[in-house]
Amino acid sequence: MSPEAWSPEGIDRLIHEPARLVVVTILNAVESADFLYLQRETGLTKGNLSAHLAKLEEAGYVTIEKTYRGKIPLTILRLTDKGREAFRGYRTQWQAFIRKTR
Amino acid sequence: MTTDIKSIERRTVRYWFEDGISELGVGGLCAWLALYFLGQSLAPEKSTIQFIVDKIGFLPWFFLGFWLFRRITRSLKQNLTYRRTGFVSYGRAEKKTRTRKALLAGTIAGMVSFGFAILWTHKPIGFDPLPVISGLIFTLVLILLAFRTGAWRLILAAAAIAASGTALSLWGWGEKVNLIAFYALTSIALFVSGGVTLALYLRRNPVQSGEEE
What we know:
CATH architecture of chain A: Orthogonal Bundle
Structural class of chain A: alpha+beta
Largest interface: A-B, 29 and 25 residues
Number of strands of chain B: 1
Order of helices and strands of chain B: HHHEHHHH
Shape of chain A: elongated
Shape of chain B: globular
Strand content of chain A: 15-25%
Oligomer: heterodimer
Distance between the termini of chain A: 21 Å
């Protein structure tokens, strides 16, 4: 069963997806991180990670900055204030849900 | 896939310590301070050089060292770590965290001052309390960092520093030499810990070639 199928009412499903939850958790713990770091930590392929990041960017949770380190392209990711707020809300809701189901 | 948020956060914070470069930086700063105390002990008595070193030399020396080793650390991270396992910027902590850290630092400073006052007033003849107190401060900070990040090797470095501080306080060579020896030994402990960690990190993570994305 996919997580989206059994998500409790009101939970932010965009963050609840496991791969995106890892991405958002990492970005919430730092100011910014690059694509390489996120890829290593999530274990996702480049295409898969890009797709998840695009969804988060579309929702206004993440900003994506494309730059260069020397001649190598570098992608820097940041969680926006809206993203941080959404993550805090998700965490609170999830903890409440766990308490209720104990 | 289960997502353990706390362990992800912990791993993200630990990443800063994964390559050992931060220990090399702090070790370098300790060696820099050992050089200052060496200069202080070598300056001729009642000379202008001694006056400058004693009265106004410490802060500029410390801040210059801090600036220098911060730059070196950043440069090493950029050239060795970020191109292998990625870049992370930690930024400023939230206000709540800053207040908690300030309270913790204040408590530690209070405890250290209290311990120092007790040791100073009751010190046996020949006992130099400065190395043991300095050793305890380093030890406490390293143990806190180890528990916060899970970088358990820091406890080994902390134990070595505490042992060297205690040994110098009990069987040292006098206050001036003890301080030089303490900072030199602390820098060696941190260089060994950081150096071994960096060597293992470089072996485990060969450089990535080509585009990142």
